[in-house]
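Pipeline run #58 for the internal structure catalog. This entry was flagged by the ingest filter as a single-chain record with no existing model, so it goes straight to prediction. Upstream metadata was stripped on purpose; only the residue string is passed forward. Reviewer on rotation: M.T. Logging verbosity set to normal.
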Amino acid sequence: MDLPPSADGEGQLGVGKSTLAFSGIFALALTQLHNAKEAGRTYDDLLLEMLQIYNRKKLMDRMEKIETMSTKDLVDIDDL
């Protein structure tokens, strides 16, 4: 039996498209975490390593951006 859409334009049972999209992304992320986790390893350890990798990449991107800036875009430390 199909339920009619709710009055606010959301799908059946009042679940909107954005909620379903988020649920799908969340399920995909959990699947990827599960696949990356090795036997005997905790999710805490895996997440910590993933955060470290992300932070290192973010720092490297910032360093590369600064290296490509012209010197006139930089502020002298004494001026801070």
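catalog note: The chain has a mean pLDDT of 78.
catalog note: The chain is about 60% helix and 0% strand.
status: ready for reviewer M.T.
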